[in-house]
Amino acid sequence: MSQTTEINETIKRTRRYWFVDGLAEMSVGLTFTLLILYYRAAEGFKPEWLRLPAFVIGAPALILGSTWLLGKAVSALKERITYPRTGYVSYPRRQGSERWKRVILSATIGMAVGAATSLISSSLPPIYQQLFFTALVACVYTYIAYSMGLKRFYLLALGALVLQVLIQLSSLEPDMQYFLFLIGQGALWFLSGIGALIAYLRQNRVSGIEEA
Amino acid sequence: MSTANDFPDLDRVIHEPARLAILSILSAAEQADFLYLLRETALTKGNLSAHLARLENAGYIEIEKGYVGKLPQTICRMTKAGREAFDTYRRQLGDFLKSL
Questions:
Q1: What ipTM does the predicted assembly reach?
Q2: Which residues in chain A are contacts of B93 at CB distance < 8 A?
Q3: What is the pTM of this model?
Q4: Residues B55-91: pLDDT tens digits?
Q5: Interchain proximity B75–A88, CB inside 8 Å
Q6: How far apart are CA B17 and CA A1, in angstroms?
Q7: How close is the nearest chain B Cα to the Cα of A147, in Å?
Q8: DSSP for A190-206?
């Protein structure tokens, strides 16, 4: 392995250390599950005029609130569980306009992908729409697995495909099928995080190393 | 064919496997503690401390010693000079390897 490859691998390994204990994944899984449950509940809000503010204001507030709260929880848990075992790493935060550029870029890409997906899949029968959406989700997981070297995300991609197959074999309405698939993604992330945490705790004890 | 004259004048502080590993880690992080560096570099405590001191003397890293509860903790972070030197090193190494 050349030195440049070694340097790149070391950098990649340091970046994915944030995911070593599965806590971040559990947090994402919880946030996503809460969001889907909220959307499901908001669809039934009465009177009907409440639904628009529930989606437009309530959903972003839920995302921001749960992200903040769960972020604090993840940091606190890492201090108790991860750092005493395998060490402490913090990552640079983008500041000021750089941060907002990233947020806007992510939102724009999300909207563009959503629009493209709707456009392509709208002419397809419902079953193919769902399969197309599932393939897209599996591709995202595969990309994360490849770019970050997080191999368990290949299993997440497989899990998404298997889940969709099982859902299609049921006789549920398309609306419920979508709901179950999305809730299933939250559950997959959460379970993946738990699996990572269990493996991490088995492999790593509190170090008790006194520094030189 | 490369000659001795083509060999880049690589920074000898960085061009040492242990210190290169330390700086690679710190380039991806804002800061990291002694325990993390120890596990990732697989050095002995004494060896790691010596390399950190070398990097600190060169002005490439800052070392901050404190406590977490009753346990001592040493935090390391790259300085601006360290980042520039590391980026230069990577560029020189990459150019040299491409020229082979």
A1: 0.86
A2: 3-4
A3: 0.82
A4: 999 999 999 998 877 778 899 999 999 999 999 999 9
A5: yes
A6: 13
A7: 15
A8: HHHHHHHHHHHHHH---
